[in-house]
Structure formats: C-alpha cells, structure tokens
Amino acid sequence: MWSHLVSDVSYDELHTFAEGLGVPRRAFERDHYDIPSHRYADAVRAGAVEVSSRDVVRLLQGAGLRRPKGRDWG
Asked: What is the separation, in whole angstroms, between the first and last Cα of the chain?
C-alpha cells in the first residue's frame, strides 16, 4: 500500500521534505511522491499532514501544482 506525499506550496518544498525523509527522487511522479506504507509514520512525524484523497487533489489544484496523467509535462 502507498500514500501520496504532496506540497501545497511548491515542488521545491516537496523535494526538500522527501529528501529529508530519505525518499529517492525516482519516487516522484508528476506532482507527488509515492510513499510506502511502512514509511507513513516517518512522514507524519516529520510534519506531513494526513488528508483525504479528495483534499490532495484540491490542495494541488489550489496551489497550481496538479499535473494529471496523460499530459506532457516535459
């Protein structure tokens, strides 16, 4: 099982946070990092906030960071 790690501020913030957790950059996909379930508690302890999947999309869209599948984000 996986969780998505996102930022509602910037990709720079997201990459910095993920790096601090030791999450490899290859886990980044378009607008989020895939975090395995065994790392979930680590992310929360480091400051991640649990939100619903609906809220994830809303937060990404509100920050202008949403990158849906099927588009070329080159």
From this structure: 28
Strand (E) positions, the chain? 2-5, 28-29, 32-36
Q: Are 5 and 35 in contact (CB under 8 A)?
A: yes
pLDDT tens-place string over residues 50-59:
999 889 999 9
Read off the pTM: 0.86
Distances (CA, A) of 58 to 11, 45, 46, 74: 16, 23, 22, 23
The two tokens of residue 4 are: 């998505």
- DSSP for residue 17: H
> pLDDT digit string (tens) for 17-29?
999 999 999 999 9
